[in-house]
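Q: Structure for this?
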Amino acid sequence: MKPPVSLAADINIICCPVAGFGKLRAAPDQIALLRLNPAPEPCQTSSLSLLKYADDQTVAGLAAVYQAIHHHGLAETDFSEWGVVAAPGYLGRAALAVTLQRLAVEGAWGISPHFIPHHSLHAVSGTISQVLKIHGPNFGIEATPRGMAEALTVAATLLAAGDLPGLWLVMTEYEPELVPLEPSRKGPSDADQSVCIALALALVPDADQASEIMLRICPHGASANHSARAAWNSWSPLEKVSTLADALGHELQTRHWRLGSLGWVELTATDLGPENGL
Amino acid sequence: MSKADIWITGVGAATPLGHSFSAVAENLLSGHSGIRRVNRFSVADHPSQIAALVEDIPCPPDWSEPDFSRLSNLEKLTLWCCSAALRDSGWWPMRSDIRLGLVLGSAAELLCLWETDFMQGGKQIYQSKSSEGFESAAVSTRRRLQISGPAVGVSAACASGNVALALARRWLELGWVDVCLAGACDLAITPISLAGFGNLRALSRRNEDPQGASRPFDLDRDGFVMGEGGTMFVLEKAATARKRSAHVYARLAGCGASSDAYNMVIPSPDPQPAIAAMRQALADAGMEPAEVDYLNAHATSTSVGDIAEAHVLEAVFGDHLASLPVSSTKSMTGHLLTAAAAVEALACLIAMRHQAIPPTINLQNPDPKCRLCHVANQTQERPVRVAVSNSFGFGGSNTCVILAAA
């Protein structure tokens, strides 16, 4: 495969220091507990009632954010002007399966008014913004198997402008894919094996800021990248949340992944603190 | 990252009021409503039974009709809008020779796909998507159009189109793309969404009078009316457009975004976050409030939302508000949800092109809590060099874009 060529003369590389990260794997019974208290320590927020109707991926994503805050010394950080970008995988699928059955049995009357607000693509970022009182922009990324690349691209885009003090990038998905059990089928569901993977990155914009972990978004054609361009074909695309989460669990490394058609992402990590492994 | 002049040089649309710039313009400026009774599925037990629907999405020229008919409806809509925008801009024949990006506002693609399939007797929701190599509409459109830049689907609910415009502008400024398609498409009028919004008590129940049902700022409003459709724009740097003597609709002068952090559905009683988004857009454009000639309001025809926005406008525009024409084109198009912001940016371009402001129809009895300079029921001819479009969304998103004559 040949990377695309740009005619633009001035192509920017974006460096995003990672001020902290949180990650978790949660089975359904653990999600139920996190729904009651998503923070590692008892939560002070009064907004937890809004998790009552939240999608499981929203709960896991928020819990990962709290882990990042707790484990990386961010408790005193003022997040009010930060942004939130969330990339959930197949958000709302399990809830839709239930809702379709209710529609078939009960008709329009049976559809919960909470379904759309809490299971559409904006739901994870909107909920996190509400719980943490974040007033910067919040939105969701259409997560497909390529959703990771898209989420990183968009996060870097927002930080590049320099008008946000920081950004939460929250990525969630099920491994293996959560496929709801058809109601007519009996026995154990494949969905019972699925666990929700969540990764939250606290990204800050200053490229010169000292950080133990650095993400670089490198477009094809940027002048500093000519040598790396040759290696592009040997790198894998970044497709799974767990791939990036696992990379954050190892010390002293530089890793590269292809970033869709844009270019590639480089992760450099030197000392990853108390969190190891997913 | 250096700021650059970004121009809109192409438009593609499929809306309840037409599938081209000229058709939408004619209908908007004549105060025509696209709302009618839903006949796509049974609505007998739905509290709201009306919507602004899009039927028969056209097949783009040079496309195989049988191939086109096999696509999902959202893929058809996105492909039509992108293809029409590229042709309009003049980039169509060269689309594969440049780095052309795509930012698509799209909120519930898979949910709608699964629901539609289920209603037709399918079982896709119970089948693995990973194993079949699922592509989102953004990614599949990129492949079908044979464009080589990045493609992404974004959702800030009803503010998605403005988010897409803002991201596309930054990609251009970063040099990540040479040209970018941006906008939003939504085909969400399904049994579950109509019932879900209906049970949320957000929708008008004026089922016996579809064309009179969407009445933003009117005391007799009783909720919004769902709509569907899409609009995509071609964005490029002014320098690129000048070099090829491109036709220009407008300059994307400013963008602003914030979050209420208050409630997933209800707008914040504190107007400050929405005020911040508007002021951010004005500052980004380097403009004073008094320079704005027209404001296309988010105003959906809900009491809480219309009044909240009026308070925001009072704070942002001060004395200028008394003479600033304000209208809500949702009175004619319905509320296109994810696609609303894109279609309303199109309404601003129409106002600028025709030097005429589309009205808020059905505004017979203006709410005294919305003290605005309404363009009520009749198009108003007047100079429009700067137009502002507000779009707010579930999840607390507030966005604002400013379009200016290039």
